[in-house]
Design goal:
Helix content is about 45%, strand content about 10%. It is an alpha+beta fold.
Length: about 400
């Protein structure tokens, strides 16, 4: 058996808030251990941003103990045994050890336990099934350490059984491979995902969007998406293009990649339940004319003013990726950075200035204001407020 390392020197493990939480659980007669992603990332030498805790105590016991210790407790996932405990303004998800009683491919009904090995066996991948205690001692009940060290995404137990419990694990398999994997994905896992891909059709749009956005932001996203397309999996998620070269030249921004990947980007807000801001961003990418370095400086500023800095950067990124220019091209780089050099100005006059100048309220105000704005933009934003108001006379 592989000798387990220690995480005793990990800075995040020694943080007072976490140590206080673990000590509180122990004082209540239970045990808490850091579970899953924090242990995995620490072993890989990657940043630990979230620390989740597993415990032998029931949610009620966690709530009572932490409340008595002056901590804030919120039942954020109580049906699955999870409460969020806030210690010194730092939130931790604390989940009672559990095992699945009933699954339907989308959600599981769980029973609480104090058996660490049972909890490990219900987790999706071996790299996510490691724990460490307050001293940094690691527990590995499914031999996950070698898979972490070799960056292999391996299902805990039989892949087909684990997928049938929750078909979202198909997307998680590819997402974790894109984020942490090295080399080809596990053959048994890949075969099971391919065979059971129809189960994706029953997943909620929100769950699909969450996993796919994380996947599309990962370092290995493009190669993984291409593999998903080859295996017939991507077609269950969206009608897609095959602009793999363009996708590979974009920054790791999931919405930018979605704008290129989707055959009909404007259908994606409903298909994946995107937020209003995400939908607006996609629409701006689709309906706007992308700028190019061939535009004269005055034209660039006029287009940037109309589009806004965010849409400008999105459009430049996509147009640059679709061009034949190298990714270190100076002209495209200057175009991308124009909003940094030239902050978009605001029209110096408003409707109230026209009213103050003696105009009567009504639609004519808006018409005249638009005329003034057009002249101001055509004049390369040079006219001052006084010059604009002078045109009213």
């Amino acid at each position: 058996m592989t000798k387990l390392p220690s995480l005793s020197a990990a800075p995040w493990l020694g943080e007072p808030a976490l140590q206080r939480l673990l000590a509180t659980l122990a004082a209540a007669g239970g045990e808490g251990r850091v579970a899953g992603g924090a242990v995995r990332n620490a072993l890989l030498g990657e940043e630990v941003t979230e620390v989740d805790v597993a415990t032998t105590l029931s949610p009620a016991q966690v709530t009572a103990a932490c409340t008595a210790a002056g901590m804030g407790v919120h039942p954020t996932g109580i049906e699955h045994g999870t409460v969020t405990v806030v210690v010194e303004h730092r939130p931790f998800e604390v989940t009672t050890l559990r095992h699945d009683v009933e699954t339907d491919g989308r959600r599981a009904r769980v029973a609480f336990t104090d058996d660490w090995q049972a909890d490990a066996r219900r987790r999706d991948f071996t790299m996510n099934a490691l724990y460490c205690d307050a001293r940094g001692v690691i527990s590995d009940f499914v031999n996950g350490l070698p898979d972490v060290q070799s960056r292999r995404v391996i299902f805990v137990g039989d892949p087909a059984q684990r997928i049938a419990e929750d078909y979202l694990r198909i997307l998680r398999f590819f997402r974790f491979h894109a984020r942490y994997g090295h080399g080809d994905p596990d053959a048994l896992g890949l075969a099971a995902c391919t065979r059971l891909k129809a189960g994706l059709d029953g997943l909620s749009a929100e769950r699909v969007r969450q996993e796919m956005f994380k996947l599309m932001a990962a370092p290995g996203a493009v190669a993984t998406l291409k593999l998903m397309a080859e295996r017939g999996i991507l077609a269950h998620l969206l009608p897609y293009t095959e602009e793999w070269r363009v996708l590979g030249r974009l920054p790791p921004d999931p919405l930018l990649r979605l704008a290129v990947l989707a055959q009909d980007p404007l259908a994606m807000p409903e298909r994946w339940r995107l937020s209003n801001s995400e939908a607006q961003r996609l629409e701006a990418i689709v309906v706007s004319m992308p700028p190019t370095p061939a535009l004269r400086p005055k034209e660039q500023r006029a287009v940037l003013y109309q589009q806004g800095a965010g849409a400008w950067r999105d459009l430049v990124h996509i147009a640059w990726a679709r061009s034949d220019a190298p990714l270190d091209d100076a002209g495209w780089r200057e175009l991308l950075e124009l909003p940094d050099r030239w902050p978009v100005p605001s029209l110096p006059v408003a409707g109230r200035d026209l009213l103050a100048a003696g105009m009567s309220p009504g639609p004519e105000i808006g018409v005249l204001l638009k005329s003034l704005e057009d002249w101001w933009v055509a004049s390369d934003f040079q006219p001052t407020r006084e010059e604009l108001l002078k045109r009213l006379s």
